[in-house]
Design a protein that fits this description.
Layout (H helix, E strand, L loop, with lengths): L4 H11 L4 E3 L4 E5 L5 E7 L5 E7 L2 E8 L2 E3 L9 E16 L7 E15 L7 E9 L2 E8 L7 E7 L2 E4 L3 E5 L13 E4 L5 E2 L3 E5 L4 E7 L7 E7 L2 E6 L8 E4 L2 E2 L2 E7 L2 H5 L3 H4 L15 E5 L1 H5 L15 H13 L4 E3 L29 H10 L3 E7 L4 H18 L3 E5 L7 E4 L6 E4 L4 H16 L3 E4 L38 H5 L30 H10 L4 E3 L4 H5 L2 H9 L4 E10 L3 E8 L5 E6 L5 E6 L9 E8 L13 E8 L4 E6 L4 E8 L2
Parallel strand pairs: 23-24, 23-30, 24-25, 25-26, 26-29
Antiparallel strand pairs: 1-7, 2-3, 3-4, 4-5, 5-12, 6-11, 7-8, 8-9, 9-10, 10-21, 10-22, 11-20, 12-19, 13-14, 13-16, 15-18, 16-17, 17-22, 18-19, 27-28, 31-32, 32-33, 33-38, 34-37, 35-36, 35-38
Amino acid sequence: MRLLPLIAALSAASLAVPAQAQEPAKAVTVSSPDGSLVVSIGAGNEGHPTWTVSRKGKLLIAPSRLGFLLTDGLPLDRGFAVTGSETATGDETWEQPWGERRFVRSHYNEAVVRFRQAEHRGARLLNIRVRVFDNGLGLRYELPEQPGLKTMNIAEELTEFRLVPKGTAWWIPGGEFNRYEQIYQKTPIDAISTAHTPATMRLDDGTHLAFHEAALVDYSAYWLKRADGQTFRTTLSPSSRGAKVVRDLPFATPWRTIRIADNASGLVENDLELNLNEPNKLGDVSWVQPGRYVGIWWGMISGKWSWATGAQHGATTQRTKQMIDFAKKHKFRGVLVEGWNKGWDGDWFGTGFDYSFTQSTADFDLKAVTDYARKQGVRLIGHHETGGNIAVYEAQLEDAMKLYGQLGVDVVKTGYVADAGGIIAPGDKPGEVRMEWHDGQRQVQHHLKVVQTAAKYRVAVNPHEPVKDTGLRRTYPNWVAREGARGMEYNAWGPFNNPPGHEAALVYTRMLAGPMDFTPGVLSLQGSNGVPMSSTLAKQLGLYLAIYSPIQMAADFPESLEAHPRELAFISQVPTDWAESHLVAGEVGEYAIFARKDRNSADWYVGGVGGAEEHSVTISFDFLEPGKTYTATIYKDAPGATYQTETRHAIAYETRKVRKGDTLELWLAPGGGAAMRLAAGK
């Protein structure tokens, strides 16, 4: 990881602010550095730990309860008194090894409030830490070592959010069979049932909120459940063991986070969850290399080839070598190969008992392919589909990652294709299995084990059907991307399967969690049997700017990509690692246009996506460096284009000179988008 001595020194100096002890109090208040956010934590009339949040003098979160229900003891929810508190402040600037921006500032005030329960309720100790930034906050529980409580068997976490202002929400249901792969709903806030996070809201006064969590480690993910009106509570993902979370003390829970901003850009340009995670634990991660890739995946998704062996088998040695040649020709770093290993024959969905992660099929020579790729300057991207069977996968995990490390496969896509609640985990006895949820504690433990094991062999991980991202890529930078939403594959299975506003909703919801392997770049704009997509050709390019990932696929068949040489040239050059990123125009669920600066040159790229309706957007180039002239190569929807007809392929090209202070009027077609490269001159 690159170091900046001056920034590091300044960061260390500014962060080293001694904690200040305070006298016991009924409530403790902490404000954001700019004073706009104020959080108060104390004990209610019956000794309930409670908290409130105000912003700019207005109550945002009314007094809301905190605590736990246990499976084997009295609840940790009443009979508490505040026994003391400490406050601190922090201000550091740290560098990401890869990301949407190179430098991240973490500036906050925090308080730790110490509670003790009444003697007749067990005299148990509970600390609550709140960290308040100008653009949001994080709250977590810290359970100190104590004589009366050795292990927490948590039936439910009782964190409450009594939201006061009215507004609109964008959300997907939590706890449904299709995990996170759902269409985002737009409803009044009080029409939410149970939602996955991030859940995004725009209040009637224009304030934007997003509820999520950070640093989800050895704990169950939470769903945001509406109790009544606009009162919400955490609901932990279930476990086969009864208690949703089992932890020995001492431990800290994940952070419960709320991003808070005046507008959509303030919501998006926000590193709250990253800042609430621990720094990089892996040391030198220069081997984690962002880049673009292609693969044989679209052939299976669209039904042309199969994962299973036989006449239609996709992952053959010959076909993979052809794809490697294509990758070399068009400067793609990697080639993804799925179905290369034994276990795909028969019904593998939600079973996965026959998978081998080290043995190839008869028509695929793993070593020959990786040797060939190395000679061509291309990397094979590995694939481990489990069918949701982590019992089988964990038994082979060490050998599988070691094999990839030996062969130079430095990225692996993992998969857990099973209905929610269908994870097959090892039980307590040999041969015994337990059924777990995709986002329960056991699966959270599993994903971290995979990432840590992969890191030993310098392999980066891109899980599909994952647990949601909570910023752990800061701590484990080889956790490069995830799926965790309804991706491009749905466009292969039915006409307009992903609606035209889907990606414009993702930017302000799922993408707040972290990078997504959306797999853009289907330039044919069609899936299985020619089914049309709700996308224009320009939108496929705009996706590379709107849906961030350090690894970006061009998903279409090579012949389809080469049928659009100008668009393929853009995809071949667009970076996947950025020095800066700004949302320069956008509204939640409607459109999103980004400006991103290449980390390795002075060039900028601008683009994004629209929604179901056409939009005329004014782009200001105020982000450019003063005094420089840039050559803008623009790809945009042609007049009259729409995703609804054959005009979806109509694209217009333009080249012009731009400078700081210039503006550009950009028309986005229904289901449209745009992209441009701004090449820096002198």
